[in-house]
UniProtKB/TrEMBL annotation:
It comes from the Bacteria. This is SGNH/GDSL hydrolase family protein.
Length: 144
């Protein structure tokens, strides 16, 4: 069953003509994050990942900072526009969403502004991850 946050996300994506694939089985994404990434406590241990990048944002600019953070990953060739990514929240959304990274850039401001939860962007190859926390941290890392 969709939450109201899922409904608003899909309505926004449809209104912006953003192509996405709905993944209703959260365990698929959760298992892959838990399998491929190291954890300390309940969080990904970015200090054990390669090619990491961190940004602290203030609450007022988090959607702008998240967009610029992803654009910087593209500019530095850490990612490509056509990379397939899976968006997953930690509590308020009941589904995961598969996007092209270029389309994620169009919807990420809405997601971080309108859905108050931790946000995970898992690359389809399960080697890279972007984390946007509710505490306004933005992190990227690569697992080998």
């Amino acid at each position: 069953m969709n939450s109201s946050y899922d409904n608003s996300l899909t309505k926004y994506a449809d209104g912006m003509a953003i192509s996405y694939k709905l993944i209703s089985d959260l365990s698929y994404c959760t298992e892959n994050i838990n399998t491929h990434f190291p954890f300390v406590g309940g969080r990904i241990n970015f200090s054990l990942l390669n090619d990491t990048k961190f940004v602290d944002s203030d609450h007022e600019n988090i959607s702008f900072d998240a967009t610029n953070f992803i654009k910087s990953l593209l500019d530095n060739r850490r990612c490509r526009n056509d990379d397939v990514v899976i968006y997953m929240g930690d509590s308020l959304t009941n589904n995961c969403y598969e996007f092209c990274l270029n389309d994620l850039l169009k919807i990420i401001p809405f997601i971080v502004r309108e859905i108050p939860q931790h946000h995970y962007v898992l690359f389809k190859d399960f080697k890279k991850i972007i984390y946007i926390s509710f505490e306004n941290e933005i992190k990227f890392g690569v697992i080998n």
